Amino acid sequence: MRIGTLGAARITPSALIKPAKLVPGVEVAAVAARDRSRAEAFAAKHAIPVVHESYEALIADPSIDAVYNPLPNARHAEWTLRALEAGKHVLCEKPLASNESEARSVAEAADKHGLVVMEAFHYRYHPLADRMVSIVGELGEIKQIETWLCFPLPRFSDIRYSLPLSGGALMDAGCYAVHLARLLGGGEPTVRAARALLRSPGVDRAMSASLEFPSGATGRVNASLWSSQLLKISARVVGSRGQMRVFNFIAPQAFHRLSYTVDGVTKRERVAGEATYTYQLRAFVSAVETGEGNLTPPSDSIANMAVIDEIYRKAGLAPRGTI
Predict the structure, then answer these.
(1) What are the CA-CA distances from residue 71 to residues 26, 55, 257 (Å)?
(2) Residue 277 in contact with residue 122, Cβ under 8 Å?
(3) Distance between CA atoms of residues 172 and 178, nearest Å
(4) What is the pLDDT of residues 238-291, one digit of tens each?
(5) How far is residue 211 from each of residues 102, 228, 242, 292, measured CA to CA in Å?
(6) Catalytic member of 18, 88, 94, 232
(7) HEC sequence for the chain
(8) Tens digit of pLDDT for each residue in 13-30?
(9) Is-catalytic flag, 112?
(10) Is the peptide bond before 95 cis (omega within 30 degrees of 0)?
(11) Do 171 and 301 meet the contact criterion of CB atoms below 8 Å apart?
C-alpha cells in the first residue's frame, strides 16, 4: 500500500511514518504541503520519495493507494471527500469532520465509491480498549461513566483555538472523551447539559457535559486545553457490582494504570502492547485489503459528531462549521 500524506503535520511521524516501518507492505510514498520547501524538508528527513506541488496533485497521483489526512479540523471532510472522489482510501485524523452533517457526507461518499475511511481514534486499536470494554461487562448494571481528556495548551495562537478551522477543546481533546464514553456506555447518549469556558468568542478552552445513556446510566465528559484541570487523561465507570478506573488510555504503550473492583475484590492490570498508531495502521491495511478491522468507520464518526454538536448547543455555542 502506497500512502500519500497531506501536509507535514507534527503528528505525522508518530501516526504514520514510524508505524509504516513496522507494518509490512506499507510505504509512505508522497507528501504535499502548502509550502513546498517545508514538504521537501519533511520528505528528506523521512525518506519520502515524492514531493507533490499541491494536495490536488497528490490525490490525483495514480500510484497512490491511500491518503493520510492530518490537516486542520475544518479541512478534514473537504480533503477526505476529494480523496474519495479520486479513488483513494483515507486515514483521517480526528475529528473526521466539523459537524455531523459533514460526517454524513463523508460516509455517503465512502459508500458510493466502495472505499475505506478510518477516523484516527488510535487508542481504540490498542488491546487496552477491548480490555476496558470487557471489564465494564463485569461491573453489573452500569450507573455512571466519566471520561477526561485534559492537557495544557497555553499557546493561544495554535490552530486548535481557531474558530474558522473548527477548533476548541471539545473538538481537539473532547472528541476522545466523547468517543470513550460512548464505547464504555454501550449506546448513544443524550446530552443533558454542558458548560464551556471560552478562550475567545465561540471557542472553548474547556468543556464539560452531562450525558444520559439508553440504559439509564449517567455520564460526564470533560475536556480542556487550558483550565485549572491541567492534565487528566482518565476514565471511571461505576456499576452495581463495582467500578473501573483507567489512567492514560490514549498512549497506554508509554504508561497506564488499570484497576477495577468487582464484588469487593480489587485487581490491577497492565495491558501490554505496541504503540496505538501501529495497531491503527495495521487495522487500516486490513480494512482496505480484507474489508475487516475498521473499528472507527464513518458511521461511528456520525454518532460521535452528533454528540459533539449537541454539547456545543447545550453550552450555548454553535457547532463547528455552521457559522
Answers:
(1) 21, 11, 32
(2) yes
(3) 11
(4) 999 999 999 999 999 999 999 999 999 999 999 999 999 999 999 999 999 999
(5) 23, 22, 20, 31
(6) 94
(7) CEEEEECCCCCHHHHHHHHHCCCCCCEEEEEECCCHHHHHHHHHHHCCCEEECCHHHHHHCCCCCEEEECCCHHHHHHHHHHHHHCCCEEEECCCCCCCHHHHHHHHHHHHHHCCCEEECCHHHHCHHHHHHHHHHCCCCCEEEEEEEEECCCCCCCCHHHCCCCCCCHHHHHHHHHHHHHHHHHCCCCEEEEEEEEEEECCEEEEEEEEEECCCCCEEEEEEECCCCCCCEEEEEEEECCEEEEEECCCCCCCCCEEEEEECCEEEEECCCCCCHHHHHHHHHHHHHHHCCCCCCCHHHHHHHHHHHHHHHHHCCCCCCCCC
(8) 999 999 999 999 999 999
(9) no
(10) yes
(11) no
Residue 108 has which C-alpha cell? 455517503
179: nearest Cα among 203, 211, 204: 211
Q: What residues have CB less than 8 Å from 310, skipping those under 6 apart?
A: 191
pLDDT confidence bin for 34, thresholds 50/70/90: confident
Whole-number Å distance between alpha carbons of 319 and 207: 13
Q: pTM, whole model, 2 decimals?
A: 0.97
Nearest Cα neighbor of 125 from 297, 294, 298 is 294
CA dist 233 and 257 (Å) reads 11
Report the Cα–Cα distance between both ends of the chain, in Å, rounded.
38
Q: Which of 240, 244, 200, 233 is nearest to 217 (CA)?
A: 240
For 28, phi then psi, to 5°, come to -85, 100
Taking the C-alpha atoms of residue 192 and residue 187, their distance in angstroms, rounded to an integer, is 15
Amino acid found at 139? L
* pLDDT given at position 57: 96
